[in-house]
Design goal:
mainly alpha; about 150 residues; AhpD-like; peroxiredoxin activity; about 0% strand
C-alpha cells in the first residue's frame, strides 16, 4: 500500500520552522555526544513512533556513515544483542522512556536516568534529551501528515 501525504512537509510550508529545527539540531549535536549515539537514539525513537520517513532516512544515513548491518538490524532489540556499548544502551533506554511517556507513572525512572548519568555529563544528557525531543517532534509531524519513506532510493 502506498501512503500519500495529507499535506506537503510542514517545514516546507512554514520556512521559519526550518530555522528553529536547524538550531535544535545544532545545539543537540554540539555537546560532545558521539554522533553514533545520537543516531541510535533517533532511530529507536522513530521505530517506537512508527515514523517510516525517519526510520528509513535514519538507517540509511547511519549505514552511509559506516554503521554495521548487525547494529542497524538490532536497534529494536538492543537489550538482547551484544552489539552496543554500555553508554549506547543507557542512551537507548533513556530514548525509550522519554518517547513512551504515558507507559508508566514515572515516565523516566530514576534507574534509567542514573545509568545515563553514569555515562554522560550534564551537558551531554541535555543534548541527548533535546535530541530525543526533537526526534519525537519530527515523528509526530510525519505521522500526523502521513509523510512516507521515500520510494526513490537507489
Amino acid at each position: 500500500m502506498i501512503i500519500e501525504p495529507r499535506i506537503a512537509n510542514p517545514a516546507g510550508l512554514l520556512p521559519d520552522a526550518v530555522k528553529a529545527v536547524n538550531l535544535l539540531y545544532k545545539a543537540a549535536h554540539s555537546a560532545g555526544v558521539p554522533q553514533r549515539t545520537l543516531e541510535l537514539v533517533h532511530l529507536r525513537a522513530s521505530q517506537i513512533n512508527g515514523c517510516s520517513a525517519c526510520v528509513d532516512s535514519g538507517a540509511r544515513e547511519m549505514r552511509k556513515a559506516g554503521e554495521t548491518d548487525e547494529r542497524l538490524f538490532a536497534v529494536a532489540v538492543w537489550r538482547e544483542t551484544p552489539y552496543f556499548t554500555e553508554a549506547e544502551r543507557a542512551a537507548l533506554a533513556l530514548a525509550e522512556a522519554a518517547t513512551r511517556l504515558a507507559d508508566r507513572a514515572d515516565a523516566v525512572p530514576d534507574d534509567v536516568w542514573a545509568e545515563a548519568a553514569r555515562h554522560f555529563g550534564e551537558k551531554e544528557l541535555a543534548a541527548i534529551v533535546l535530541w530525543i525531543a526533537t526526534t519525537n517532534f519530527f515523528n509526530r509531524i510525519n505521522a500526523a501528515t502521513r509523510q512516507p519513506a521515500p520510494q526513490n532510493w537507489g
